[in-house]
Design brief:
Number of helices: 5
Largest sheet: none
Distance between the termini: 102 Å
Helix content: over 70%
Number of strands: 0
Radius of gyration: 28 Å
Structural class: mainly alpha
Order of helices and strands: HHHHH
Length: about 120
């Protein structure tokens, strides 16, 4: 009997918090649409901003992005996410570049100095 009361109370609190979050999201989406309508020029985003939007957009999914996204189309945002993942796993961090490894700048300066002093 006691557990049922706690379950009901927990369900009520969870539901009210969830409802409040939904209302906040609805307000923010409407506010974004209004602000976007007032700003007619194209918005330039930096790479970190695109990455942030792409990560959140991927978690939201295409359907939710259609309702929320104002900065770019859902397909564009998901394309940013695909490029982000492709860049993450392209292996460039572990790639061996061809050629001889560079020498230390101090050693290079010493070799150049010795070549100038002993040019003959």
């Amino acid at each position: 009997m006691r557990n049922k009361k706690w379950v009901r109370l927990l369900a009520y609190v969870t539901g009210s918090v969830n409802q409040e979050l939904l209302l906040q999201n609805e307000y923010l989406a409407a506010e974004n649409r209004i602000l976007r309508a007032k700003q007619p020029t194209r918005l330039g985003l930096s790479d970190p901003e695109r990455a942030t939007l792409a990560e959140i957009g991927k978690r939201l999914g295409r359907k939710a992005l259609r309702e929320v996204a104002c900065v770019a189309k859902p397909d564009t945002i998901l394309g940013w996410y695909r490029r982000l993942i492709a860049r993450k796993f392209d292996g460039s961090k572990h790639r061996q570049y061809p050629g001889r490894p560079r020498i230390q700048p101090e050693l290079e300066a010493l070799v150049v100095r010795m070549a100038r002093e002993n040019s003959g």
